[in-house]
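Lecture 7 notes: from sequence to structure.

We start with a single chain of 346 residues. Read the sequence below before looking at the structure.
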Amino acid sequence: MYRLASFNKQRFLISKELRSGKYTDTMIYGFVRLPSNVEEPERSRIRSELKKIAAFRNMTWPAMMNKPFQIPFLAPSNFAQKVKRWLKRFLRTRKHLARQFHLPKCNVREAAHTKVADALYNPFSWQDFDLFNPELLPCPCDKLLHQHTRLENIDGHICATLDQFDLPQQLNILQSINSYSTVYPTKNTYMEEVTKTFQNWLKKHGFPTHDIDTFETLLQDLWSLHLEELQETPRLTIGHISKLREFLGNEVVIHHADHQNQNARVFCPQLYFRGCRNTWTDPQLFTKLEITGDRGWRNHGSKSNTNGVSIGEPHFRKDLFSSKERNNIRKGEPLLATKVQHMRSF
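Now the structure, written as tokens:
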């Protein structure tokens, strides 16, 4: 191993020898494990040479990070134990298909489900409207104030939390949700995502990805136990989110206020986007560029425009926004402040 890390002729000779038929693939896979006992920088140089040798021999390079199988857990308390027990039996009968000396772990780690903020909040769904003229947006406040008399409002425009609505009994679980709370998905969505994750895990460790019938049977059994657990102890599911959306309608904005992510709020579109407009056009936060939109798009990503103002990386107070960056274009949704009656973000 130390010869492979050298900078002289010894590295060439040992590399040539390892490429020959004198060593089997099993022996090469065994050598791949040895650099873990060597200090840097020799470890990196040895692995680099072994990776080139494995590519020359048309071998599959094993995963250096043997991470456990990671999937979102269902409601049963013994979910992890059942999956781990099944995974041990699955790997024991297919050990001959794995890469020698590189068997995967049978541990199971919990992954996160979808957050309430991703499933419920909808500010970006209004982007097709003229948001800089909020007076033209629909206003369902009269109808909602007539149906729910306890709603908080500002000049007749609602900005109420969910506990102020007269929700049906099956939706009472939503009155105290947090934007970072997770929701259980539907059966088909869960089956597809977990099956795809399992196939990727098998492919990473060199197993065939078509032999997963027993895994699908396991998921069916676990889902039955999941439904029984939900009957005894109700949990937040994507069905609750769908029913809440249907109950509130499509003419409201659902988001949370600044420093109040534990309380989802239902805003009138006119009130919400008026606060957004006041934030985006506030001279304390932004400087308006005196250029056309086409020129701004052409210059996007450049360091500065002719006036020395950065276009590709706009600067704003990060504590006032929940920002999302897609395709290197930064977007933001203001978190309206309650202390100024949701008129802006600060």
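Strands lie at 69-72, 108-111, 114-115, 153-154, 157-161, 182-183, 253-256, 264-267, 321-326, 329-334. Keep this in mind for problem set 3.
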